[in-house]
Amino acid sequence: MALERYIMTATSPRITARVSIDTKELLTKAAALVGISSINSFVLNAAIEKANKIMENENSLKLSEDDTLMFLDALDEPSKANSKLTNAFKNYSSKTL
User: Fold this and answer.
1) Exposed/middle/buried for 42, CB within 10 Å: 0-12, 13-18, 19+?
2) Residue 36 has what pLDDT?
């Protein structure tokens, strides 16, 4: 996933953090390795990437084992079309052919 770029303005909200010297050095080296000169940009990009992954996981469909088996059974044996569905299909087919 490509990192998204955001336009910052003077009125953009600000997030700050105090870190140890070791953490600052680690972030500086990591940012340099990926070609980002600003620690702030590196941290922001990393935070956005992590937040997107969290949101993606949260929004994904989660089924219990029983629900998964029921879903798979439904796919293996689809229900039969009732008369209303059959008539609707015939009506649609007659109009489109």
Assistant:
1) buried
2) 94
HEC string of the chain equals CCCCCCCCCCCCCCCCCCCCHHHHHHHHHHHHHCCCCCHHHHHHHHHHHHHHHHHHHHHCCCCCHHHHHHHHHHHHCCCCCCHHHHHHHHHHHHHHC
Q: Please give the average per-residue pLDDT across 85-94, as a whole number.
A: 91
**Two tokens, residue 79:** 């229900």
pTM attached to this predicted model:
0.54
Helices 39-59 & 21-33 angle (0-180, nearest 10): 80
Domains located in the chain, CATH noted:
20-78 (1.20.5.780)
Distance CA 51, CA 89 (A): 45
